[in-house]
Amino acid sequence: MIMMVSILELVISFNTMVRKLLLLIILLIWSVSYCEALQIFQTPKAFVNNTFEDNPPKAKVLWLTKNLRPMVKEILHHNYIKRRIQYWSKGSKSTWILQETGKEKLITIGIVVDEDKISEIKVLEFREKRGDEIRHAFFTDQFVGAFLKSSTQLDRHIDGISGATLSVNAMKKLARLALYLDRIINEK
Amino acid sequence: MKNDNMEIHAVSNNKLNYKKLFKIWHRNMGIMVALFVLIFAMSGLCLNHTEALNLDKKFIASETILTMYGLDSPDNIRAFYVTNDWIYQLDNQTYFKQIKLKTDNDDLVGAIEFNDIIVVALSNQILLLTPEGELIDQLTEVSGLPNNITGITSYENKVWITNSLQYYSIDEDFINWQLEPNLPDISWVKQADISAETKQQFLQNYRGNGLSYERVLLDIHSGRIFSVGGVWFMDFMAILLILMSLSGIWIWINGSGKSRSKGYSN
Fold this sequence. Notes:
The structure holds 2 protein chains of 2 kinds.
Chain A: H1 2-32, E1 39-40, H2 44-51, E2 60-63, H3 69-76, E3 84-90, E4 93-101, E5 106-114, E6 117-126, H4 137-140, H5 165-187
Chain B: H1 2-48, H2 50-53, H3 63-68, E1 77-82, E2 85-90, E3 93-96, E4 99-101, E5 108-114, E6 117-122, E7 125-129, E8 135-139, E9 151-155, E10 158-162, E11 167-170, E12 177-180, H4 196-207, H5 213-222, H6 227-253, H7 257-265
Antiparallel strand pairs in B: 1-2, 2-3, 3-4, 5-6, 6-7, 7-8, 9-10, 10-11, 11-12
């Protein structure tokens, strides 16, 4: 009984502290509403320069012609946001800077394809409020070595990240698109 | 016997302390939520009668509230007239044919029509559009484009840009920019004069159909008017209200018979 009384006294003494804590929680919640911004992890220029060891070839463009658009649409479930796509290629390596909407805003992703396989994939610019966990190596490493086993499907399963499903989907689509476009430029 | 009395006394004191604690918490929570109960109730009352009060058809004129929603009237409107259509920018939002372009908040510098392509210069990027407004490509520094572009024009079948320090032209495929050592005598595209009527059209497009009273009341009711933090804050207040109701019931149930009957008689 004495112990219960002591606990009660302790609780009462906490009352003032709890009030301060409540105020702090309110202030914290209020401050959360102002946390959003464009996050640049690496500029596309730096990504291309790194890929080709500071000696990048001149950019080329691939027009998304009527022949290519149906397959691009099959991969993305909609048309690509641009009518043409820039890329840089030297030897067996091609580098793509692609964009896809996560939930509401565009995510810019750099992808390097070497000998029909992804050798690097990186989030360059992230504009969404949530889902930027896809930038971490524990996630992007799953794509390294991936190739298209059928016309547009990856050879492997990519584990998702809870709370970042739409960003994960965007990256998976762009990985497939880069591999498909690399195949197209190699056929030319 | 004496020990038993002491224990009864301690238990009785303990009960009193519990009641005191609940009353203190009940009072504190009541003070905290009072203002928000008023907001909940008044906004809820109005929302229940939206149609009767025409709240969905009346629009906010207050610049302060419009500013909160990012819908204030920007003083700085940049506009260029290209192929019988306007390309314009209000508060870093750029439109062509009433379509909002994704420009990462870069300033609109100019726009020209060149070989059936609309070339839009922004401070750190160039957009290539079809005459229908579809995006062909977005050229940035990765294509050799300099930052802080201040002018654009076409001259001798080439598109030229400047950053006020140097001059660049782009190849015929619109892929790579090259530095031009000599500047010919050219003039850069200038902003068009816009009439009050055209400006009003721009503002209307920028603000959509306007901000209704219903929208604002809904956002006040849910706390969304202060973004995500506001919603969580209102959730927090709602939880406090629930706790206050429960503590009120508890205090009533555990109140003395005398005070309860007194309460009824009153």
